[in-house]
Amino acid sequence: MKYILTIDAGTTSVRALLYDKQKEEIVKIEQEPFRQYFPKPAWVEHDAEEIWEKVKQCLVRVTRNIKASEIIGVGITNQRETTIAWDKHTGKPLHNAIVWQCRRTARYCEKLKNSRKAKIIQNKTGLVPDAYFSATKIKWLIDNVKEVRQALVDNRLCFGTIESFLVYKLTNGKSFVTDITNASRTMLFNIQTCKWDEDLLKMFSVPKNTLPRVVSNDEIVGTTSLFGGQTVIAGLIGDQQSSLFGQGCFEKGMAKNTYGTGCFMLINTAGDRIKSKKGLLTTIGYKLKGEVHYALEGSVFNAGSVVDWAIQNLGIAKDPNELTELATSVKGNEGVYLVPAFTGLGTPYWDMDARGLITGITRGTDKRHIARAVLESMAYSTLDVLKVASREGKFKIKELHIDGGASKNQFLMQFQADILGITLKEYNYESTCLGAVFMTGLATNVYKNISEIKKLLIERKRYIPGLSILEIKPLLRGWKRAIKKSLKR
Fold first, then answer.
1. Beta-bridge mates of residue 4
2. Of the candidates 265, 210, 209, which has an alpha carbon nearest to the alpha carbon of residue 241?
3. 406 closest CA partner among 350, 342, 340, 358
4. pLDDT tens track for 26-84
5. How far apart are CA 145 and CA 445, in angstroms?
6. Cα–Cα distances in Å, from 295 out to 17, 74, 298, 334, 414?
7. Is 360 in a helix, a strand, or coil?
8. CA separation (Å) from 154 to 24, 158, 227, 295?
9. What SS3 state is found at 279?
10. How many CB atoms sit inside 10 A of residue 456's CB?
11. Closest CA to 14 of 131, 105, 97
12. pLDDT band at 393, cuts 50/70/90?
């Protein structure tokens, strides 16, 4: 056996990656985009069946000329919180998947946030009531979709996140599971007892028998015959936790930030469940060899999506490279700031009614300043998260490991290092997928322990801060003013 396969089921595309264990590197990648649905303002949906078909296409192409006997196992990393309801007899979705970005349950969440239930939810799950998480999406499906209600009555209803649905399809319905990191993002899972919580299930009217069995990240969960033989499936892990693991953040206080559709910072807190008072989420980082490792997470809902918006909606550039050229053709932002609150603001504000804005425009403002504000918004949003994380965790974050599509932008990463005042380190652009690769390897005994994995992590690039405090302060004042205008409260 030579290869580990990883499925990376993202928010806008799916990929299949082939990892050569002998070379210890990814040797082939296949990718397919899928359609985004916006049935109403701030509503976001995916066609789960389309995602499954795209996954199959990628798997077939990436394993061309490879025998099933050469495949060690298949791991899965995925967009979290996105919720699917399907028929357990046919495996067919009963409604479009409701995506993590979707705000359709925002009003309901606002009521929860202003009630005594908010404290119960945070104490049990580490999360704040928000439309971001799966529980209110499940409730909405039950309350509003006739096919879902009928499937519930007929005892043929399954709810799950993307990895749960893909395992179900890969195993022809034999395995109905979710991993502990994805479970911890549903707002139905007690992160202390590590079980579905009866009080929360009752609060959201979710029958326990509609939910998958929760497994560890290094657990074999089934087999698939998709490649001709029986190939094991293991190493399920949510994308942000997979990035944390893939970047080698194995020790307390180590942090990573992923610059993808959104920005997500995770800080390993080891065995400590640190309760945040300033908008961070307490979540499960991973469960390995029966031991749970916790993390603090800061969530920025819109990052790379702002770049897409500037290109596709505004038309100020043809592609990300041209956007960067525009941004770097001016010496500074000239007081122009963009707050990327397209779907509300996450950490540390958690304001679902905040909306995006561009401020500081003058007669001399042109698309170059807008382009710069687009890129800088990711760095400022990350700074907001890091400040809170340092205070809440009561440890100094000395360096930040980076990955994700926008981490390849050297202008953005240098600006990020400058305003954070700490060093940024890049280990592998594909660290999210590597987290699932390593977990699959641990589940199948390809790797004996974390020490073996540490040896595989090689620093490829670093960014050292270069601005003085005097240069940074006026930039931050402008950002704070812009944020204040964006917030509803």
1. 19, 73
2. 265
3. 340
4. 999 999 999 999 999 889 999 999 999 999 999 999 999 899 999 999 999 999 999 99
5. 44
6. 27, 25, 10, 37, 26
7. coil
8. 48, 11, 34, 39
9. coil
10. 16
11. 97
12. low
Q: 249-426+459-489, what's its fold?
A: Nucleotidyltransferase; domain 5 (3.30.420)
Q: Whole-angstrom Cα distance, residue 81 to residue 11? A: 11
Q: For strands 423-426 and 461-463, give the pairing.
A: antiparallel
- Do residues 238 and 182 touch, judged by C-beta distance below 8 A? yes
Supply the DSSP symbol for 250: -
- Residues 10-15, mean pLDDT to the nearest whole number: 92
d(CA 87, CA 273): 36
**Equal CATH topology for 3-239 and 249-426+459-489:** yes
CATH class of the domain comprising 3-239: alpha beta
Return the SS3 of 276: coil
Q: Tens digits of per-residue pLDDT, 221-267?
A: 999 998 988 999 999 999 999 999 999 999 888 999 999 888 989 99
Residue with structure tokens 């007929």? Answer: 154
| Helix/strand/coil (H/E/C) assignment for every residue in 60-119 | HHHCCCCCHHHEEEEEEEECCCCEEEEECCCCCECCCEECCCCCCCHHHHHHHHCCCHHH
**C-alpha distances in Å from residue 473, one per residue of 279, 406, 421, 477, 481:** 23, 25, 12, 6, 13
Pick left, alpha or beta for residue 248 (phi over 0 → left; psi -120 to 50 → alpha; otherwise beta).
Answer: left
Phi, psi of 403 (to 5 degrees): -160, -175
Look at residue 374 in the predicted model and tell me its pLDDT. Answer: 95
Domain ranges of the chain: 3-239, 249-426+459-489
List the Cα angle 284/286/290 in 5-degree steps: 110
Q: CA 102, CA 117: separation in Å to the nearest integer?
A: 22
Q: Are 266 and 255 in contact (CB under 8 A)?
A: yes
At position 27, the amino acid (one-letter code) is: V
CA gap 398, 225 in Å, rounded: 46
Cα-based torsion angle of the residue sequence 304, 248, 56, 158 in order, rounded to the nearest 10 degrees: -90
